[in-house]
Structures
1.
Amino acid sequence: MGSKGKKNWRIVAEVIGGLAILTLVFCWTATMGVGQTKKGEEPKRGGTLTLVSELAPTGGFDPVYSLSYWHLGPVTIPLMSGDFFAGPAGQKKVTWRYAEQEAPEFMTKGLAESWTIPNPRTIIFKLKKGIKWHNKPPVNGREVTAEDMKWSYERLTKTPSSGIPEIEKAQAGGKITYTAVDRYTFKVEYAKADMRSMFTTRDWYRHTAKEVIEKFGNQNDWKNVVGNGPFLLTDYVEGSSLTYKSNPNYWEKDPQGRKLPYIDGFQILIIGDRSTRLAALRTGKVDLLSEVDWRDAEDIMQTNPNIKTTGEYIINVPYVGFNSSVKPFDDLRVRRALYMAIDENAIVKGYHKGHSSLVITGMQPPGFPMVPTMAELPASTKELFQYNPEKAKQLLKEAGYPDGFKTSMSILARDEPYASLVKAFWAQIGVDASINVLEVANFTSQLYGFKFPSWVGRWGFSWGNWSWVFQPGAHWNFTRITDPTLSKLIDEATMNYVDWKKWVKDWKAINIRVLDQAYEHLIPGPNVRTMWQPWMKNYSGELYLGRTGYFLYPAYVWPDKGK
């Protein structure tokens, strides 16, 4: 090993030694589930699951105001949702491990029975017949119709906080038209051809029933939530737990024609403390924990040899974000310098002891066809993955910062290990980055208000979301990117979702452009495991049924502790 490599391992070791928190469970939607069933084994009906989330719901229970939808996932299904049985429990064609849009043939379990795209500005959904709203006042179990979709999306479009008005203005050509063609046919038309708008329409936003809003004004109170999914929300203790009961009128059946869900319901405990979450798994107080850092997973497998687990995998990627609209981050040379100043291999081998890997892109998970290999990257992009502090210093000098500069990185407490690593590496090229630790609400507010010069956060793999991250005026364009070349690539790619091969090719080009411009620096994160109790059945590590299929998998699993 060369002297530079040894030095960087010492940097990593010094940072690690100074941290109070050495390892964390990383996903804000840390979830729980059940274990694989034997072939031909009959589901055991009844029983409940105890799941867990690291963070409480953000923004309430009305989708036009909420900043996240994971707590509404089991309550209200979108127009398109993933088929659980296309995964390990059935066809084994997808993993359902990532919050990622899979190919269209696997997204068949939402409200829409089918959909057509007659032209690049129009998408037409044929709704399934017989899907009903939950049987509670004031909706009382009536059928879901195209008029519901029209009314709900028009409400979303009229509410600034929902994000759709920005989409309408910036991407959809200034106008989105919703039409209930008949009882089961819902048409969406955009003034400008842009498939990203269609993604948002079909599987991102949750819907509300007109009667609820007319009676209560909004759906902020959890007691007023009425959905159409496999579970009803029956209790919420703020900062403590959410409780869901199975919907007896849910429409879906398993491949053998058996009614779903199998279980009576489940509870999500909100446990912010990592050690408490791990202790709850060890003692059997919770049934499954996802995204367990490899360090913790190794320890649990020693103390609980019967625990079930997936292999190690990467899911949420730590990253450094730059506000490219302000100095010095508006200069590509500065962003590239900061990229090359970080020795990613030292982080993989030193901090993670080899239980990690370089991540080419945060848009799609490793191994997805849209992800370019290192060999496919142009020379200028490959250079970013090669630790080169001398080249970084030269770039800073060319940009007018021969002595470096001062900046700040805003973070959540959970990301302090990565911020400390970045700070140490940047210091080697003269960049002095102070670390500003914020609590969740303050961090989220400032991030969405574009207040940070730089920050450390997490991205989950999901190209449907990322198409909004890199567009001028977009709700999630935290890096404040204005890149005509990138916008053109995205515009061209999003014209067509029918030709999957072309789609893959186009998105690979987008990935390369984003990388080459160094808008964000992905940091090697930890390999993780999903771990669950041996009594959990029909579970193999599924977490999301599509981009927004949060907490839907409990409808397909059951506990069996025997006598």
2.
Amino acid sequence: MKAFKHNNIHRFIFTLCFFVFLNANGNSATDSLTKLLLNTKTDTAKANLYLKLAEEVIYKTPQKGFEYSNLALDIFITNKNKKGEAQCYFLYGQGYFAMSNYDSAKYFYEKSYLLFKNEKHFGLQAKTCLNIGLCNDNGGEYPAAIKNYIEALELAEQVSDTDIVTRAYNNIGLIYSLQGQTREALSYFFKCLQIRSTNLTRFKTNIGGTYINIGIAYKREQKYDSAIYYYEKALKIKIEFNDTHSIALCLNNIGSVNTAMEKHAVSLSYYQKALDLFRSTADQYNLAMAFLNISGAQSGIGDYNAAKIYLDSSFAISTKINASEIYLEVLKFYGELYNQRGDFKTAHDYILMYRNAKDSIYNIENTSAIAEMNQKYESEKTAIEIEKLEKHQELESIKISNSSITFYFLLGAAFAVTLLLLVLYRNSRIKKSTLKILSRKNEQLLEQKNDITDSINCALQIQESVLPSPHHLKTVLDNYFVLNLPRDVVSGDFYFAEKRDNKIIFSVIDCTGHGVPGALLTFLGMDVLQDAVKKNILKPSLILNQLDFEINQRLRQSLDVQSVKDGMDLSLCAFDYNTHALEYAGAFNPLYVVSENQLTEIKADKHPIGSNADGQTDEYTNHSIKLKKGDMVYLFTDGFADQFGGPRGKKFMYKQFKELLVSLSNLPLNEQKEKLHQTHLSWKGQSFQVDDICVMGIRV
């Protein structure tokens, strides 16, 4: 089998036109701003400092950037400062873009864009419009992206903003590169380079990005020496600026040229270095691409098992972030891998999935343009036929005077031609009408799809805002991890943690259903849990009693067969910092404690929360154990153990899950989370995720 040769490598460089990366002085800059904040009196000055702090951290730690942006936003809204409000939304977009969540990023960029437009801040409007284009571009919405780039270019030229002008040139060139029009792409890249070269002080790091794009174009033309020449020029600049993310992009691109020359061992070395650097960033898109490229290199040297493992990782990330280009290449490569293994049926299934997905991504968005061209064609065809008829009739009128026989013959012929043309014209009208109807229906379907997608993404943002933030969890739990893997965009699993006096209350909850229905129950569950803690109900069994009663009442569940029969399974703990005593109560979901490589299971009661046909509140058992320093406590839903996969397509099962937790219990928390995730992906393989997954681990 031939090794994977990625033809969409231009995608790697979009983020170079987007982020202002932090250098080695980033922490000192943050410290300086924090000190200034302590001595700042006025709200406006505080808000501006919060904005600067958000800008410093938004790429490396988006959640921290969101916190600073929220503080600034509250002040700007109170003071009716629309420009400041728009800047906050722009930073939200930056953070979500850094996490490769392009739909959420675009949502906030568009809010920012409208405010900048209303306030007539043309430069900021141009910058925001460019970033909306990047979101559309990374999501595969190329016509929309081109429209955004052209608008950004026009706005930037009005205010002589050469930075945005060069970025727009760059990104338009990338679209040409994607379409295989490398000559046109190079033309735009060299326009960009010409402007940037006139101001090296300002644009030196950006010139590195332009070098990479030129290298990509030359690679497409199979001019590999030229490609490597420009990649190495870019790498030199990025190393000078200690730009970790861009160094990774350069290494990756040099690896791609070696792949094209079938030097797979060399390319694997470059890809591995790039992967290590991408892991230290929040850029999920290029992390997925790095896994894909390593898979190709492993295939090139004949290690198909390793190729499959890396391909699984790329599939999981590209599916999660909706990276259509990578997803297509993964499907195609799965087909090649299974074909190599002799599993032709599975290979055929993946190739069919690839073709269907490709048609969906690249054809639906052009439907209206095709319909318009067909309508134009039919109109021109009809006009030509009518013109022929008019000329023919003129000739016939001249000949009529020669002979009555000729007259009647020609009259009959003219009538026949007229009738034929009328039939053609009628058919043309029917075709145009049909095309209009189909085009309208297609637009309606696309609007409905976009509305549904926007609604679900909005639901995700709301759900994420309700869940405890990483900062809150760190404050309450200290040494912890949470692995949260929704089956769909939003999840029916959620987690909870609050501190009251010297106790922490924490829980992992599995609501009935997946997606939006499950997510709706998470809001209800979170509300009841918070209310119980506020009322100082801190004993786990009493909290579960309260939760069972409230869910049953609010959902009006009773013997009435028409009422809702939904509920929750959960494990809930209360830990006393002073005594190291842990109390636990559970509904179907047990508690695992690992101490000195020995796992203890505390079983849950066998009745769920809220699903009470008789309308009576259930009673739950309160367990109490003493923990010691270093012990691991694990709470979880059933999604991990119930996942189908492995060599025989079986469930993972709790026995294997327990063994896995024991084997990981002595590792640092972040490594435990990563290995749990990788184990799930490896076990799942090409199977679909069957349920939401949530695992919480806490070290005493």
3.
Amino acid sequence: MALFGRMKIQTFGRIGISILVATTVLVLGTTYLSIREVRSIDATWAAYNTRIAYKRDLHTSLQNDLGYRGPLHIVQKAIATQSAFDISLLQNKLQKIEDTLTLYGHTNPTEIETAALRQIQNMVDGHLFALNAVETNSERAATALAFDVTPALNALITLDKELTLMRENAVQQVSNATQKTQWIMASLGGSAAFLLGAIVSIFSGLFRWRIIEPLTQLSGTMETLAAGHYGIGIPFADQSDELGMMSRNIETFRDHALAREQAEKKWRHLAEELSIAKAETQATLARAEESEARYRHLAQHDDLTGLANRALFHYRLYEAIAVAKRTRLSGAILILDLDRFKDINDTLGHPAGDELLRQVGERLGQQARETDTVARLGGDEFAIIATHIDRIEGVGTVAEKIIAQFSKPFDLHGTPVNIGTSVGISTFPSPGYSDQEYLKHADIALYRAKSEGRGTWRHYNTTLDEEMHDKKNLERDLREAIAQDALEIHYQPQIDVKSGTLNGVECFVRWNHLTRGYVNPEDFITLSESSGLIHSLGEWILKAVCKQIKMWEGQGLPAIRFAVTMSAHQLKHYDFPNMLERTIEAQGLKADRLELEITEGTATRHNLDDVLNTLHTIKSKGVYISVDDFGSGYSALNRLKNLPIDKVKIDRCFTKTMCQNPYDAEVVRSIIRLAKSLGMTVVAEGIETVAQVDQLISEGCSVMQGDYFGQPVAPDPFYQSFLKTT
């Protein structure tokens, strides 16, 4: 019995030992499984922490490389400098960022982060390059600074979604591990409750205290973090075991989540600022392009008429000549200017002249075809390039239409004005000629049209070229004749028929050309006015006359006046009064020995303030002033009272026919009566017969000039005929 008892005790002891061993093995196995599950969870959190590290690097790169450097400040600085940008470069840059992020949006997370970091670094490099471009005022390069971070922010949101999914998986794994551990503990407690209740309770309590409750607490913490509440504390973070490591990983996640939330707020704010800056930059680009187009138009068009200017005209002419050579269709240049345009400026003012030019541009534009070019070359000079001409004779028809349009009155602020025009034409292409030569040919044709009476058109030919060449040679010879004192002064007497004495002398310039003989004075004087030689010629005439007067004074010349004709060009020269005074003083003459003649056209149509001031200045110095060819401007007689005039000379067109034409006789009678009423001396020109002398005496005019008394002659014959016997 005792043996049985011992055996029973031993048996129960063995059974108990077996149960204890089995329970120990079960507990150890369960503990091993729990520890492995905890390590699996910890590995998951470690992987998640690695992902957080990538995320932190990404935010740090974005914040340090972009946010810290202040991209908005740089964008605003670029806008302030009004740099010109290229929109296409900006759009290509934005598209490249979007395409790159889209391409990596479906790869594994690590590659997404790596690609995003690389793309952000590229944007940073471009950003720094744009900053350097703006500071060095490099145009077009600053387009890299205005990028859109929205695609990068979308990529971050995608990564956040992936991290959230991992966090949920980790929480689920913790929950599953907790359930498994609870099931194991329940099974263990049931099987060993009758023997090892106390041990199991201790182990169960320890396991629950060390594993279950911490895991449950950490699971609740993760759920709180998953809800977006990042301000909570993380338990067990100060422990050095695996639970502490897991807690520290969760704490790292919380810190990164807080940093991410702050970074997202900064990035949203930065995205809004960059969006505003982008809109402002695009507006600046639009304004810059608009300004560039406006400046390009101003550089190629006349600002008054809106027509092509000289630069654009030459470019279009070059193109038209090239097309004509290629297509074998002719083209033409039509050059024209306005008749009496200067009179419009002088009488109505420059604003009226500008309005006239604008209306002229409109009329020319109405006559031109779409393929033609209408240009204002300067002043009142206009040009038309006509292309694709089948028959060259048709250009003359175009010129006639233009002349007809210009014959209609222009309305200048309620004042109807009649002007005319002349047209010169040259055609192209012709072998061996350049665009400049074609333009020169049109100018030559225009000169011929104007010299033949205006209001007409002429086509260039070689004869015109020869005439222009001859004109240039004559201008050169005239310049040399003035410099070498190769001109002559001829003198014609003015006789007082009542006393039979010499009353005055008119001086005429003559040019005896070495090969041409005597050149018509009207030809070379007109040439001097058009070439600008009139000032040199006028000064030479005054010096020659004053020198001759001084010489004759030494020979006993009586106190008579010598008349020299002055043109409006000379009177309007700023230094003319001073030049006249210097010339008189150089010969030691009295100013009243000299008389300056101006034509009636100068006295009435060119009565600008500067001309009137010049006449008054000359008069104040003691020089006499007379009006030549008086009567041709009869409608302007009322203007005489405003001019400092001492003498009027009746035009020969009236004195020549007054004996046969009662109308001309009445004009002569009226001029004499008017001049005397104004206290002026009257001289009748062009006297050739006794009948003219008798009729003028009967009308009260006693001072006469003409071939009847003597033609203009050289100094020696004049002295012998009129001065020696005086």
